[in-house]
Amino acid sequence: MTEHTGTDTPVDALTLADFEAARETVHRVTRRTPLETSRYLAEVIGAPAVYLKCENLQRTGAYKLRGAYNRLLQMSDEERARGVVAASAGNHAQGVAFAARELGITATIFMPLGVALPKLQATRNYGADVRLVGDSFEETQAAARQFVAEAGAVFIAPFDNLAIIEGQGTVALEMLDAAPEIETLVVAIGGGGLISGVAAAAKLRAEAEGREIRIIGVQAENTAAFQPSLDAGEPVTIDTRPTIADGIAVARPGELTFQFVQRYVDEIVTVSDDEIAAAIVMLLERTKLVVEPAGAAGVAAILSKKFVPSGPTATILSGGNIDPLLLQRVIGHGLAASSRYLKLRISLPDKPGQLVRTASIVAQQNANVVEVLHTRHATELPISDVELELHIETRGIEHGEEVVQALRDAGYVVRIGERY
């Protein structure tokens, strides 16, 4: 990293040459992941092209290995001898564990008690001493900090460190090497390590080439701390709500990453859990790629048209480490969010043949019934009626509307119930 004077901000510490040197460093252990194209997303957003950087196919399943390896490689021999410590529920843990194994450094990783089993097993398989502490990440991190104070090990921050940011920025250089025409980069934001490195590297590269590149940040709407912080002019802590995108669920920006985002990021948008789930389903169906919720945030922003496109556009599928049980739930939720599943409540006269008749109408519209509930006991029903609850699978919004209209044309009162 370039030395900087006391009058400079830490943002000035990283130059394009630093990112280029880091690229050669991280390639000792990382894969040059593919940059795929998506004609479908290009049509959705009206861009000449949309590129997908497949960091979900990276070793350890996420980009985090880049920053972790770059950080550990810059440690002194004395620091390496003390070992490293990290607190993480997933991708950072695996990145640090893998990098430590490659460099022969002892790694102790603190993870929450409820961590997903695949992430726990993977971190242990990389040779780390994993300690399960705390019901929340705050408790887990406090335990890690206490261990550092007692054992003298080196704490590896997940995002708020220049070497980490430098390593993550190598993603942007690979993307621009493969597709130098990219004009807009869409990047998920949690603590800000990825977007800090990617935005800085991309802007510095574009400046050297005498052109501009636009950086769009994407946060989960339930944990969107960066825009309030930018509005306040300093990092602020927000009250968060649950989100499926746990990989970017951070309540406060880092001190360093805030400065990078303030300098280099052009716009920040948010996406809902429904939009993220729909993006995961789209990626499964159209690209055959398994992506975790945080890794699909950029695609969600494109699918839901959260920004106005400017030229060839690219986003990073930042991770693929999703628990199969969560994936199962997300698929159902994503199908519902895109109106592929509908729950219909139909009032029927209580007489024989009505169930068969409604099922026939649904079948004639080429929709598929996946679940049926037939009850006489709903208190709001007239005594001579029953309620039929149909869960049906459709091809999308228009098809669902056609099914509902066919039932209403047959004389039935139909209510669209809550989604899955």
- Compute the gyration radius: what is it? 25 Å
Q: Averaging pLDDT over every residue, what do you get? A: 90
Please give the number of β-strands. 14
Tally of structural domains: 3
| Largest sheet, strands/sense/barrel | 6 strands, mixed
Please mark out the parts with pLDDT under 50 across 5 or more consecutive residues, or reply none.
2-7
The CATH architecture of the largest domain can be named as 3-Layer(aba) Sandwich
Topology (elements, then pairings):
Blueprint (H helix, E strand, L loop, with lengths): L15 H11 L8 E3 L1 H7 L4 E4 L10 H10 L3 H6 L1 E4 L3 H13 L3 E5 L5 H9 L3 E4 L4 H15 L2 E2 L6 H7 L1 H9 L5 E5 L4 H16 L5 E7 L5 H7 L22 H10 L2 E5 L1 H15 L9 H7 L9 E4 L7 H14 L3 E9 L4 H11 L3 E8 L9 E9 L3 H13 L3 E4 L4
Helix pairs in contact: 1-9, 3-5, 3-8, 5-6, 8-10, 9-10, 10-12, 13-14, 13-15
Features:
420 residues; alpha/beta; Rossmann fold; Alpha-Beta Plaits; 3 domains; 6-stranded mixed β-sheet; 4-stranded parallel β-sheet; 17 helices; 14 strands; 43% helix; globular; disordered N terminus
What does this entry look like structurally?
The chain has 17 helices and 14 strands. With 420 residues, it is α/β, with parallel strands linked by helices. It folds into 3 domains: 10-62 and 162-335, Rossmann fold, CATH 3.40.50; 64-155, Rossmann fold, CATH 3.40.50; 340-416, ACT domain (Alpha-Beta Plaits, 2-Layer Sandwich). The strands form 3 sheets. Strands 1-2-10-7-8-9 form a 6-stranded mixed β-sheet, with helices on both faces. Strands 5-4-3-6 form a 4-stranded parallel β-sheet, with helices on both faces. The protein has a 4-stranded antiparallel β-sheet with strand order 12-13-11-14. α10 (193-208) links the parallel β7 and β8 (214-220). The longest helix has 16 residues, at 193-208.
